[in-house]
Amino acid sequence: MFAQYKSADIAQYQLGSPAESDYLTKLGIIAHVAQEPLAFFSGISIWPSEMLRLIALMLAIHFMVKAGIDLRANERELGERFSLNPLPKTPFRWHHLGLGLEQWRATRSDESDSEPEFSAQEAWHAYLCRNKFWPRFIRIGVLFTLYFLFSFIIFRLFPPPPTPARGDLAFQFDRIAILLTAIGMMILSFYVVDAIQLNSNFIRMFARVVTKWGDAVVEKSWRSPPLSEDELSAYNEIFFVADRTHVVARLIWYPFIILTLMIVARSSLFDNWSWSPGLLAIYGINACWALGSAILLRRAAEQLRGATLSNLQLSRVRGRAIEAKRATFDELITEIRGLKKGAFAPLTDQPFIRAVLFPGAAVGLLAVGQRLFDIF
What we know:
Blueprint: H1 7-10, H2 23-33, H3 47-81, E1 117-119, H4 120-130, H5 133-157, H6 168-208, E2 210-212, H7 215-220, H8 229-248, H9 253-265, H10 277-318, H11 323-337, H12 351-375
Parallel strand pairs: 1-2
């Protein structure tokens, strides 16, 4: 009989005045007898919202698995293209956990050089060591613990609004669904942020030191001769970063898709859901954190491109006496300036720009749909 009432009205249904002695008795009877109806667009049921939350939870798990598979596949492709050996398998050691929090430093291959150098093989293995499960688990675990405590404090200061549910089963199911989905969204967000931040640090290493790629990579380049290995080093760095970030930059879509489902699940199209300052703060921080990491990735890539172009232009001036070298440098400079792949893509083509617009577009379409249901 309660299916015709919205959740905001249920509390007023035959309760009488709070001053009456049987007020709590009547409230208990209604909470025990009333059951949550199943209706999708009548605005009286939490079950469509719970379905969306469960879908968001399953997608969060799927996205983390898919991200791991895609990153490993990309690692194999880069290893073949740039003649990089895979990371040798080693048994687990407890000191491996420290890589999750250890500051990344470039290892110089020759301390006598006036300019710091390291091999691409060493840098790649250092990156892969930090990209393994346990170091990443430590980093994500620390972030998750700190953020979970922060969220707990926020919800203590700004309690979430009451759930518009009917019956103990609906209340309990809603609590479990929201908790599991929130945990899944946080872990996914930190997974994506960690992957993006790890690549940002990797790119900054290229910008600080000279990379030695080895004879195998030089032999694959049809620009050697006339250019030497050192002169081609910056060119290889740019395209290595472009190929890697082509996969990494797309990960930003995943937390925003989950966030969009979480926002849509609280739509009044399904039930009398409401928002609190605490919820808005948590959702907003999640979005800003992921967005900020993606912006820093593109910034690091553009800084590397700028430094590479400066080095190539300087090398062009130094080798101006050799016509073949000058023409090859011009080709490299033009190719790098026109590169639009991965983190080097134009701002309008960046995944994080489109991902930011996605929740707004989804909410806008939902508002239009709700208006059409009201009209018809």
